[in-house]
């Protein structure tokens, strides 16, 4: 991997950390009246700066719940995928340069952690006193494409995501790069 690609991956991991963690830190520190809710497909209402909470929705015969994280005041709203399965709305990530082919990312995407697939770069989480490093997402092998992805089941390797996304496509994080092939006889752990 070239130095420029590594730098781009690191920069994108910083942005991803900002998208997921900054609301946690602000909420855990009391936040401020200037905090704005993340973009959401949930209905608007309430006062400016109020937390955005999403209600569960029904997709087919399943009830799909939003992603709520400790210390985060806003939910990631649920959505229905094109085939009617439960998903999470990735639209808020587009402002940070992460654009999935499908905005509604299915939860529980199949794939296993794979030592042959690189993890995402460590996440750099800005704080009032500097920066905290957190482990990135494990590399995984996507079951349907046999390409490397990122296992988005735990943030920072510690905080469980509920519902988990599973093994997501890594292409949105590779700055135009192509995910490596894996599986089909490759070592999985």
What does this entry show, briefly?
14% of the residues lie in helices and 25% in strands. The protein starts with a helix and ends in a 20-residue tail after the last strand.
**What is the radius of gyration?**
17 Å
> How many angstroms separate the termini?
23 Å
Number of strands: 13
Order of helices and strands: HEEEEEEEEEEEEE
Q: Note the overall shape.
A: globular
Classify the secondary structure makeup into a structural class.
Answer: alpha+beta
How much helix is in the residues? Answer: 10-25%
Number of helices: 1
Q: Largest sheet at a glance?
A: 4 strands, antiparallel
> Per DSSP, what share of the residues sits in E-state strands of 2 or more residues?
15-25%
Q: List segments where confidence is low: pLDDT < 50 over at least 5 consecutive residues.
A: 1-8, 17-47, 185-189
Number of domains: 1
Mean pLDDT: 74
- Write out the strand line-up for the largest beta sheet, numbering strands in chain order: 6-9-10-13
